[in-house]
Amino acid sequence: MAQLRQVLESQLQRPLPEDLARLWPVVILCQLANQLRPRSVPFIHVPSPAVPKLSALKSRKNVESFLEACRKMGVPEADLCSPSDLLQGTAQGLWTTLEAVKRVGGRPPPPLWPPSGLGGFIFFYVVLMLLLCVVYTRLLGS
After folding, report:
1. Domain boundaries, the chain
2. Which of 1, 59, 52 is nearest to 27 (CA)?
3. 120 versus 140: which is more confidently predicted?
4. How far apart are CA 4 and CA 82, in angstroms?
5. Could you give the maximum distance between any two Cα atoms of the chain, in Å?
6. SS3 120
7. What predicted TM-score, i.e. pTM, was given to this entire model?
8. Residues 67-112: pLDDT tens digits?
9. Percent with pLDDT over 90 in the chain
10. What is the C-alpha separation between 59 and 64, in angstroms, rounded?
11. What is the fold of 2-105?
12. Half-sphere exposure (CA, 13 Å, Cβ side) for 2?
C-alpha cells in the first residue's frame, strides 16, 4: 500500500492525506484520471467536513466515472479491475488498473482532424465535382 501511495502522490504531484481509507478509492482515482486527461471525470463526489464519508451511491458513481474515464483513455477492458475491487479498496486489481492507466494516460488524445478514412473520400469528392463541372461546361458550350 505504501508503494501505491507513492505512485499516486507522484502522479497527482501532491501529498495524500494520512487517512487514505476515508477517501479511498473514489476521490483520489477520479483526480488521477483528471490529472492525466483533463475533464475525463466531469463530476467528482467529494466528502465534506460535515459528512466525512461518502454514501454508497456517491462512491459507486465515482467508481463508475473513473472506470469510464479509463475506457475513454484507451485502457483495455481486461486491464480494468471490477467496481467491487475499487469500492472495497483491494489492491489486487487496482494495481493492474493503475499500471494500465499510467501506460495509456500519458499519451495525448488522438487528433480530431483529419478524421481517419475521410482523406480518400475528400479526394474522391473533389475529383467528382471537377469532373461534373467539366461535363456541365461542355454541355452548355454545345
Report:
1. 2-105, 112-142
2. 59
3. 140
4. 18
5. 87
6. helix
7. 0.61
8. 898 888 888 888 888 888 777 766 666 676 777 777 766 555 555 5
9. 4
10. 9
11. Actin-binding Protein, T-fimbrin; domain 1 (1.10.418)
12. 0
